[in-house]
Every structure is written in structure tokens, then in C-alpha cells.
């Protein structure tokens, strides 16, 4: 197959895998907010952007095999902030942020939890970029280039990423002669899954893990496919029963209008679309993604779900009926603009890379069958397989995550195995539906907030933070302090 | 490089990696006794050779990557004995023997521990062959053929083998609808390492592990390189101080005789060699391997170390001095024969396969520096690397085992992580020097016997078994019963 054909196919899957409502039509897992609803001028701490040194580690391409190509090395980026570190002589802790599906540059600023707490722990801060993102792409390729090569993209897997982290952490500890410094790994969203799995697979490298908004139970058939959309529905219903009802009724109304003569063109006018709609699904996809984002990132002090519902409920729409209300919801969220309904043309590394990860191993069967404010749109496994197969020529490994990392009967399994994991969640985040929401043992602990959103606990402390968020973070800090104190006591006994 | 050249190189490393005393000169890890010192007519149970059904599983070549070649399937063999099983309705246990560096066929007969105890546990017995051994070689190749292919041999790794086991166990449980049947994995020697690592990496697949004579601490620099030979020395010293002294003095005497005119030819006569010696190292290598084997497999009721020492101490050797005594030791071990000192020409799958595994990842730095009954022969890392590199073109991954599986500070690390592992050892076995000999927690337990040998606990019960061996096995059974009882209680609570 020629390269241009391959590019064409890649472009197809990438567009169809975006959140624009077409084909693969699944919500995004990113911890990053698209909207700058959280104003950094309210941050408690100062900017930390310049407190980091950048390093590159000579990483092994393939940790698990010994083929000639396995030994290929590539540069993997990591950042270190040593401003707060108590030093190796005191076995002071090391906090390691496990990068996920985006470049690592922005994380020291985004993940305020580490910088906000480094001083009280006297912790070294390390941020490691995930392979194939940012500047950590094998063979000096671009991500797009790497994904176009069926062989090279094949090394882009979570097990390899965890082994990368182990190698870098051990390297850093050796370099700093910090053999007995306890390591706490921290991760958000997909990175949260990695953090919890890392503690389970590499207990000799990490003493504990803070796994924020990690939907580790959305694999195989552990969680019902509807769970994600049930939570969104609940969020809107709780914000406003009439708002929920309006959204619920809007889909058939959109269809009704669309199917009349000049339907799309009328919808263009009603929604002041930036570009003429190509299909009614484009509008519906845009709206779904709006509600996904609002619920997932339903952050204080603004609370986007409430903001949208205020728009919908408050609309003076004698003229335009239900669709006028829906439009008012969009305007409430997006603000005053010359046009709306800008279909996503996201070709970020996140959307490129996650599209591959989803097709190869991170298969989360998310769909809509009933009892939600959305139209039914069930997850059809055979369609998913066909799409992945035709896009990347791979058969999605549907059971690999549960085979390698587990997930079924997790309470039973981890009740007497493993320790030192915090699963933190905010229950307004639809991903929390596949998170761990119950304490499993006295050191594998669920810390959640009723009103919290996706990965909110890891964001920088703000003057406007509500008390429940302040308390959640305090609980997490207290638990981690407990692990470290226990470890130091063990260490003392062990060294005698 | 042409295939014939490659074959030549392969043959070189294989001969040099054997236990014949040349080049790589390291002891064997096999659980299998070369000599039939344990007479099966004393076995308590009847033969079990015909109680098994053979299956082949469609196994994935490469679990950790998603390259096109990763999806290649191969047939992996496993055996099932369901004669004793209590069935899925009772969630009756499943004992899984994790095959190691040899074909699986013989194991149901060899590993009597499973058949001897199946009835009281109502356990299903499963024996899984390790990839690249027996009939479980990818692409329908011979092991020799697979090892000659730099690409194909690259998939021959321990992490892949563990993932194979997980896939087969989950498949068997699904097929039998035995979701809640607890799985206990059992392994011996290298297989014992795999069993302990399997419980740590796949706690959702195995409830517990019995790891017999697993030297998991012989990697990197955890255990001093001399440890193996120190134990052998201790064994001989305890059997007889004069015997130990004779062996200790014999090496320089062999050298002295060898360096005289007609030295080798005189040694040929003194030792009645089957073939003329090519070098003095051939004789010394043979003797070292004799003492290794005697100590490692110092089994009751015969106790080969004592047998050799009786030969040495009892020899009437006014004529031949020290070497006459040494020869009497050989005769005592080998019995009456027309000739002796048959250099090993072992080209079994075990020696072929382990030679690769040692060079790629299972790097155990075993050497002799001082304080033993042997001549110094230190482990020289650069030589080892050069040999592996020139034989297989690979750089041994010296730190991979400790990176992936851990090992350093194991007591500190596993004190509050993990559960349900028995590390069993016999302290006369030189491999016990790198085993876990202390309880780490109340469920990660060391069960050892002062007089035991390599993997002895897993062999069939015999009428001649000494009391300490009977007790060791009883302790192991009791501990496993405890795990299963606790699990059933958890299961009951969990299902309510």
C-alpha cells in the first residue's frame, strides 16, 4: 500500500475519531479544559513555569522482547523541579507525575497539586512525558509520521509506557543516590489509570499512587455502556428538571426541522452556524460534545452545566421553541460570538494519539441505550472492530486491559493484595461511573466529592475553591503523609 | 549473515554454555534430576501418566506491542487432569503448574505435589508448557530453528511467558464457567520464580503461589556472586571435613599432575576417562558439575553428597593420593562403569533454551572469588556481555529483572504489598542462597528445611521420605488451605 493511501486512511480515522459527533463518536478522556473557565489569576501559588529543568532519557523502544529492533533507543523527556526537595540524605520523597495523552510541557503549571504540596513534603517533583507524545516520539518522528508506520506505532502501548516510567524513576533515584526516597506517582484521567496500575505492577518503584478520575472499570463488560451518559443526564437533571427535559426533547425536534424542506439551512440560521451544516448529525454531535464537556468539567465557581441550563431555562423563545432554548444554552456557554457550532477540527497530539490507543487496547465500550437525555446510540462492537481494522489494520485487543491489569471483582481481588492507592473522583464527572468509589482496604481508598468534576483535585488551589474541594485535597495529603510515615518507620526497622 | 554462519555461532555458544566446564561455566537451574536416585517404585501414589487430556491454545506471539507481527498466533500446549475436580458450582480450586525450561509432558509424573494433594483440595490440575519449549514453539519451528532466527527468538521472554499463562488460565476458567474458582500457581526453580512473579503481576488471575526453590534474588547485585558455591562448600564440609579438605586440595594437585610431561595422559588413566581429555579444564569442569549436582539434588534417602564423601574418605589410595580419593568419589556417585568423566554433550531443549534466556534477561552473576572448596573463578561481566553479544547479537539486559519484578529490599517492599506466596527452599540446595528465607508478612512466607534439596517438596511423596520433608509439605498444604478458606469467606461476603 502506498504511503499516500495510508495517509488518506489515517486522516479518515482521525477525523472520524474526533469528538465532532461522527463515526467513533466517543467522549474525550483528557484532563485538560478547553475553556479557560478557571482563571489563573485566582491561583494561590505563583507561576512555576520556570522552576523546571528538562532532561532526556535514553529509553528502550521495546522492554518486553529481545528482537534486534527492541534495543532501539529513543529520547524520552522528563522535567525536574528540585526547589523543594529535602535531599537524599533525608530520603525525602519524590512525587512523579505520570504523563498521559498530551505533551508534558504544560503539566507543571496545570497540575497544581504537586507544586502546592511540594514544600510541606519537601518533595522532589518529576514529570515524565508519555512515549509518543510531545518530544518523546521514537526515531525522532512526528506523531503523525509514527502513526503512519504500522511497525513503529505498534510500540505505542500502555505496558511499554509503564516500563518507561520505571526505568526513568530508577535512573533518577540512582543519579541522586536517593535509593530510599519514597516515590508517589500521580496521574490524571488516563494518567490516573497508569498511576494505579503502576503501583500494582511496580510496587518496588512506587510506594503509592494518587489516581485522579481514573475510569479503570470501563473495560470489557465491567461497567454498563450507558454509565457515562447516565451521569451527564443526572448532572443536568439535578441542575434543572426543565433543562433536562428540554434537552431530552430537542433531538427529535432537530430531526423534525432537519427533515423539512430547507431543513439544514433553517438550522444554520437558528444556530448561527459558522459554516453551513453538512448533515444534521454534525449539529447533534456538536451538542453532545457540548454537554459532555460541560458535565466532565463542571468546575466551580462557574459550573458550566448550570450555566447552560440557566441559558436554556431563561430563554425568551416564543419564536423558536425548544431549539431557541437549546441555542440559548450554547450562547450561555460560549459567550457572545459572531457565529456558533464550530465543528471540531481537532488534530492535536491528544486526539491523534488517543485514537490509536483506543483502537489498539484502550477499548472502552461507551454507548447509549436508554434512560438518558440523549438519543440511543448503542456501542456496536463489530462496527468498532471494523473501523479500527480498516484504519490501522489492527484487531482491538478487547480483553487485554482486564487480562493484564485486572478490573473484574476488583474489591474481592485487591481486598488482600496491594496497598497505597487513592482513587479520587468527582461524581459529576461522567468518568466517575467507571471509577473506584468504595474503599477496598485500609490503604486502597476512594476519595470522592459529590459535586466534583474531572481531575479537579489535581488542579491548582484557588481562592474561590469550595470547602468540599479543599477538604478532598486535604484528605489526599493526609493519606499520603500516612503512607510515607509508615514507610519511614518500616525503613528504620529494616535498616537496623 | 548466512544461515550456516549463524548455525556455527549458535553451536559455539550452546556448547560453551553447557555445564561441561568451559566458557560460561555456570550451574544448571533445572529441577530435573539426571540420576534416577529417587526410585519411583517407592512412590505413594499410582502413576498418573494417563490421567491427562492435552489441549492447544491459540496464543498471541507478542502481548505487549501492536505491530502487525505481534498478532501472530502459535499453538501452546497445556494438560488438564479433571479426575479430582469439585466443579465450577462449588468454585473448587484450580492448581496450575507453570511450566519452565523443559517440555511439559513429564511434569504430571514428576510434580507429585499436585497429584498427591488434588483429592483433598478437589482441585483441577492444569499444566501449561512455557513458550519455546516442548510443542509450544512459535511458527511450528524447532527450538533450534527458532533460536537461529534473531527476530523469532526475540519473543522468548519471561514477561511474555507470564502473559501466556494469564491468557490460558482465563480461557480455561471461562470455558469451565469457573469464574470464582481460586487459582493456585505452582512452579519449581525458574518456574518457581515465574510463580511468585505471576502472583505479584496477576493477582486477579492467581490467588496464591507456591514457589519452590526460586532464586529470585540472584539478579543484579542483590546476592554475592559466591553464594551458590558457598552453600556447596558448606554441604560438603558438613558431610565430612576431610572430604571437603580433599576436594579443596585436589584442584592444585590436578594442575600439578597435568603440567608434568604426559600429564593429561596420566589423568586419563587415573580417572579411567571414556575419551582422552582435551584439556585439564575438561576434567575440572566435570568435577565441578558433579559437586554442583550432588549438592543441588542432595536427596534422601541416598544423599549424593554423603555418598561422594564416603567414596572419598573411604578410598584406599596409598598409590594415587588425593586424586585417587577424588576418583573414588566419582565411582561412588556413578557406580561401577567401564569408564568415567563423560563430558556433557547436552543439547536438550533445556540447555538450548536456557542458554538464550540467560543471555537475554535472566542474568545471574554467579562466580567464585574465595572461601570455597573450588578454585577462584570470578564472574566477569564484560566477558559475559561479549559472549552473549557475539553469540546472539544481544546486549544482556542486566537490570531488567530487578526493574520489572523487583528484588532489592524485598522485605521492605513486600511487607505491606502483595500476599499469598510461599517461598519454599531446602538449605542444602545452593540455589537457596538466593531464595527468600524469611517470612515477609503473614501471608508471604518462607518454608524451608535444613536438609532439603532443590525443589524436593514438589516431588511425589515416597515411603522413604524423612519426617522433615513430610512436615514441609504439610505446612505448605496448610497455608494454601488457609488462603482458600479466607478467599471463600471473602467471596461469600462479596456476593451478598
From TrEMBL, chains A, B:
Keyword entries, A-Z: Glycoprotein, Hydrolase, Protease, Signal
GO annotation, biological process: proteolysis
Pfam families reported in the protein's UniProt record: Peptidase_S28 (PF05577)
GO molecular function, one term: peptidase activity
InterPro entries for the chain: AB_hydrolase_fold, Peptidase_S28, Ser_carbopepase_S28_SKS
Signal peptide (residue range): 1-21
Family: Belongs to the peptidase S28 family.
Protein name listed in UniProt: Lysosomal Pro-X carboxypeptidase
Lineage: Eukaryota, Viridiplantae, Streptophyta, Embryophyta, Tracheophyta
Amino acid at each position: 500500500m502506498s504511503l499516500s493511501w495510508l495517509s488518506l486512511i489515517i486522516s479518515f480515522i482521525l477525523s472520524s475519531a474526533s469528538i465532532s459527533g461522527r463515526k467513533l463518536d466517543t467522549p474525550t478522556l483528557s484532563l485538560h479544559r478547553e475553556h479557560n473557565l478557571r482563571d489563573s489569576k485566582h491561583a494561590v501559588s505563583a507561576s512555576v513555569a520556570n522552576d523546571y529543568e528538562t532532561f532526556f532519557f535514553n529509553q528502550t523502544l521495546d522492554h518486553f522482547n529481545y528482537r534486534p529492533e527492541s534495543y532501539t533507543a529513543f529520547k524520552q523527556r522528563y522535567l525536574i523541579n528540585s526547589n523543594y526537595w529535602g535531599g537524599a540524605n533525608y530520603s525525602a520523597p519524590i512525587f512523579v507525575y505520570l504523563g498521559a495523552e498530551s505533551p508534558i510541557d504544560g503539566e507543571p503549571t496545570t497540575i497544581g497539586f504537586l507544586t502546592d504540596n511540594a514544600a510541606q513534603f519537601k518533595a522532589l517533583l518529576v514529570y515524565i512525558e508519555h512515549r509518543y507524545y510531545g518530544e518523546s516520539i521514537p526515531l525522532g518522528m512526528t506523531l503523525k509520521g509514527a502513526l503512519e508506520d504500522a511497525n513503529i506505532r505498534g510500540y505505542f502501548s500502555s505496558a511499554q509506557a509503564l516500563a518507561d516510567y520505571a526505568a526513568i524513576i530508577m535512573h533518577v533515584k540512582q543519579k541522586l543516590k536517593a535509593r530510599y526516597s519514597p516515590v508517589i506517582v500521580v496521574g490524571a484521567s488516563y494518567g490516573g489509570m497508569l498511576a494505579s496500575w503502576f503501583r500494582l505492577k511496580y510496587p518496588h518503584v512506587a510506594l503509592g499512587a494518587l489516581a485522579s478520575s481514573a475510569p479503570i472499570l470501563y473495560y470489557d463488560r465491567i461497567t454498563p455502556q450507558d454509565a457515562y451518559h447516565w451521569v451527564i443526564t443526572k448532572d443536568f437533571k439535578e441542575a434543572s428538571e426543565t433543562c433536562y427535559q428540554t434537552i431530552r426533547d430537542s433531538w427529535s425536534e432537530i430531526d423534525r426541522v432537519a427533515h423539512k424542506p430547507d431543513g439544514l439551512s433553517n438550522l444554520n440560521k437558528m444556530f448561527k452556524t459558522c459554516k453551513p451544516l453538512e448533515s444534521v448529525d454534525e449539529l447533534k454531535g456538536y451538542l453532545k460534545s457540548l454537554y459532555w464537556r460541560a458535565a466532565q468539567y463542571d468546575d466551580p465557581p462557574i459550573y458550566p452545566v448550570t450555566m447552560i441550563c440557566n441559558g436554556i431555562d431563561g430563554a425568551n423563545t416564543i419564536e423558536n421553541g425548544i431549539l431557541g432554548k437549546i441555542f440559548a444554552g450554547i450562547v450561555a456557554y460560549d459567550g457572545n460570538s459572531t457565529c456558533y457550532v464550530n465543528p471540531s477540527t481537532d488534530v492535536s497530539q491528544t486526539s491523534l494519539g488517543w485514537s490509536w490507543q483506543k483502537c489498539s487496547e484502550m477499548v472502552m465500550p461507551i454507548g447509549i441505550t436508554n434512560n438518558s437525555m440523549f438519543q440511543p446510540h448503542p456501542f456496536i462492537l463489530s462496527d468498532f472492530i471494523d473501523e479500527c481494522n480498516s484504519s490501522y489494520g489492527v484487531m482491538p485487543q478487547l480483553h487485554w486491559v482486564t487480562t493484564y491489569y485486572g478490573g473484574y471483582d476488583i474489591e474481592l481481588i485487591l481486598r488482600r493484595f496491594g496497598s497505597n492507592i487513592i482513587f479520587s473522583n468527582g461524581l459529576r464527572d461522567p468518568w466517575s461511573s467507571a471509577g473506584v468509589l468504595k474503599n477496598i482496604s485500609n490503604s486502597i481508598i476512594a476519595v470522592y466529592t459529590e459535586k466534583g468534576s474531572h481531575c479537579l483535585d489535581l488542579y491548582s488551589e484557588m481562592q474561590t475553591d469550595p470547602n468540599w474541594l479543599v477538604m478532598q485535597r486535604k484528605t489526599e495529603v493526609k493519606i499520603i503523609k500516612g503512607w510515607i510515615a509508615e514507610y519511614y518507620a518500616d525503613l528504620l526497622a529494616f535498616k537496623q
